[in-house]
Amino acid sequence: MSKSLIGAVAALGFAMTLGSVLPAAADAFGNWKRPNGDTAAVSNCGGKLCGKITAGKKPGFVMFNGIPASGANAWKGDMKHPDMPGFMTFNGTVTLKGDKLVVKGCAVGQSMCDAETWTR
What 3-state DSSP class applies to 36? Predict the structure, then answer.
């Protein structure tokens, strides 16, 4: 196989991988409804995922700010919960599952966890 063919195959593979990851992240962006009726906006912030309550009980509250991708349709990082004191952070995951966003936070390792499913 020639070097130019190998380079073309590698570029195609990279483009296909990039194409399969970026649309999933883009699908996570937008406005979501929390189970309590709040609206949260999920956006791209520096290539990472950010989520902020835009309407409801605590508009402006940032639930997650710059959590990195941890695979296809998943992000992991520090999160906050609007019903907890502001100084508390949780080990969080955000997972896109079809037209739903599952937001999960855990304290004390993985022993105390709570999750919400957000809808469009």
Answer: coil
81 in Cβ contact with 90 (< 8 Å): yes
Q: How many domains does the chain have?
A: 1
Taken as a whole, the chain contains a residue count of 120
Residue 28 belongs to domain spanning? 3-119
Looking up residue 106, the CATH number of its domain turns out to be 2.40.128.520
Taking only the tens place, the pLDDT of each residue in 30-79 is 999 999 999 999 999 999 999 999 999 999 999 999 999 998 899 999 99
Which position has the token pair 């195959």? 9
Contact (CB, 8 A) for 28 and 41: no
d(C-alpha 88, C-alpha 81), whole Å: 8
